[in-house]
Amino acid sequence: MHHMDDQKYDIIVIGGGPSGMMAAGRAGEVGAKVLILEKNNRLGKKLSITGGRRCNITNAEFDNDIFIENFKDAKPFLELPLSKFSVRNTFDFFEGRGLPLMVEARKRAFPQSEKAEDVCKVLIDYIEESGNVNVKLNAEVVSLVMEDKKLVGVTTTSGTFHADKIILATGGLAAPDTGSTGEGLSMLSSIGHTVKDPDPSLVPLKSPTKWVHDLTGTTVDNVTLKFVQNDEVMHEVRGRILFTHFGISGPTVINAARIAKDLLKGGPISASIDLYPDRTFKMLDGMVRAILDRNQKKLLKGIMKELVQSKLGDTVIGLMEPGVGELKVSSVSKAQRHTLVRILKDLNFPITDTKGFAYSIVADGGVIPEEVDFESMTSKLFPNLYLIGDTININRPSGGFSLQLCWMSGWIAGTHAASRNM
Ligand SMILES: Cc1cc2nc3c(=O)[nH]c(=O)nc-3n(C[C@H](O)[C@H](O)[C@H](O)COP(=O)(O)OP(=O)(O)OC[C@H]3O[C@@H](n4cnc5c(N)ncnc54)[C@H](O)[C@@H]3O)c2cc1C
Fold it and tell me: Which fold has domain 8-199+362-418?
């Protein structure tokens, strides 16, 4: 038995993000003496800004087989851990602790209070309730301590601590201002783990085009977005696109950013948005003609709201020949009408880059999943080292999947590390 102020613990958790807090709380609940080391002056700094501060806590797909389809390469690794801590368990955990959840479009689950801070509170209460977990803030781990090739503790800016087991929950590289700056990953590679270099993956895309910037705040729904390179359509997705002051964003864009990034390595690309993907050119032309016929006396710019939302109407007119918006509908030529239809089906602009780490929702990179035993979340190289949350390289879409992985891996690691017979 160790006293809380001893420097020897059963378990040290490095990093007080969602995965680390879940692991520490769970290990304390099972009865282990736990020390959680966090370099910030608070726990859950990034968690508190997730989902626009509302926290998209998980994705309410309760069928594990369907849930897992959202993960491409990592699918085979996740089946087993998900059977131990599923989306259902996440709901039960938080709702059972007084945080009712609600489900929005695309099965994204949020606390009904719409406060990410409330999610932090539940976890902080969980950590405190067993009396077994000691929290040390403003404590940055600078290295792992090895003795005879065995991991025995950690060195921090405020001393060295020893433990039988170490749970590494230092996060990835997204939003570095919240504390995840990648030292955890450097420590792991220094002891022999294969760490895939982080790459901004789920990020918005940049465009230099002024009319795109001018559309800031405008969203188009149920459209297709194509990436075009050398006149060839290289990729096509469908969904909602948000125009921003730097380019385009929103889940559809963010999830396709990886492909744009790969394409950009081979040369310039452009984005092409089809605002009417379910109508052929001919069908849309018929529709536009009918609208024009009904509004012969109006100005062309005055009927655009029947085709697109207001701000976008000006954009489309602006992309046609100068002055065309002031034309009376009755004098719009067939060629001009065709130009209009073509723009509605091919709103195109160059994409020059992704927005980079600071804007990324998740940066990929981390220890390759092949080096993790997903039954216990232990490292395959060091049996008393656990890897959880964003420290593992698992690509996933946005929508609550990242946090589900944190709850799952944190709970499993906490449970396993706290069990005496390991
Ligand atoms: C703006 C934004 C919004 C997001 N929204 C959502 C969302 O709505 N839903 C969703 O599922 N996912 C979302 N994500 C992703 C999600 O936040 C991450 O997947 C999640 O936070 C990862 O948790 P983690 O515990 O692995 O690491 P982190 O949350 O990164 O926490 C790691 C912690 O370790 C600490 N640390 C790092 N190095 C050290 C060290 N050397 N010593 C001591 N402490 C250290 C850090 O300070 C940090 O507190 C969002 C991400 C961002 C950036």
Answer: FAD/NAD(P)-binding domain (3.50.50)
The separation between CA 291 and the C-alpha centre of its own chain, rounded to angstroms, equals 41
Q: Is 198 in the pocket of ligand 1 (CB under 6 A)?
A: no
Cβ of 403 closer than 6 Å to ligand 1, yes or no, is yes
At 359, list the tokens: 């804007």
Using the atom order of ligand 1, give the atom closest to the CA of residue 56.
8
Q: Is the CB of 204 under 6 A from ligand 1?
A: no
Q: Quick one: which of 88, 60, 81 has its CA closest to 394?
A: 81
Which atom of ligand 1 has the smallest separation from the CA of 116?
A: 8
Strands 385-387 and 195-196: unpaired
Measure 341 CA to ligand 1 centroid, in angstroms: 45
Per-residue pLDDT at 384 exceeds 70: yes
Query: Does any ligand 1 atom lie closer than 6 A to the CB of residue 106?
Result: no
Q: Is 362 in the pocket of ligand 1 (CB under 6 A)?
A: yes
Residues β-bridged to residue 145: 153
Cβ burial of 392 (10 Å; 0-12, 13-18, 19+) is: buried
CA dihedral 105, 107, 113, 114 (to 10 degrees): -60
CA of 402 to the centre of ligand 1 (A): 9
CB of 39 shorter than 6 A to ligand 1: yes
Write out the residue limits of the CATH 3.50.50.60 domain(s) in the chain: 8-199+362-418
Residue 145, Cβ density class (10 Å: 0-12 exposed, 13-18 middle, ≥19 buried) = middle
**Cα 391 to middle of ligand 1, angstroms:** 10
Distance (angstroms) between ligand 1 centre and the Cα of 170 equals: 8
pLDDT tens for 133-172 read: 999 999 999 999 999 989 999 999 989 999 999 999 999 7
Rounded to whole angstroms, how far apart are CA atoms 155 and 143?
5
Q: Is the CB of 153 under 6 A from ligand 1?
A: no
Q: Which residue has the tokens 């921090």?
A: 156
Evaluate if pTM is beyond 0.70.
yes
Closest CA to 402 of 135, 90, 129: 90
Could you read off the pLDDT of 177-220 as tens digits, one per residue? 565 667 898 899 999 999 987 666 678 899 999 999 999 989 99
Ligand 1 and 184: CB distance under 6 A = yes
pLDDT at 183: 83
Give the model confidence (pLDDT) of 234-253 as tens digits: 999 999 999 999 999 988 99
Residue 4: what residue type?
A: M
Task: Say if ligand 1 is within 6 A of residue 17 CB.
Answer: yes
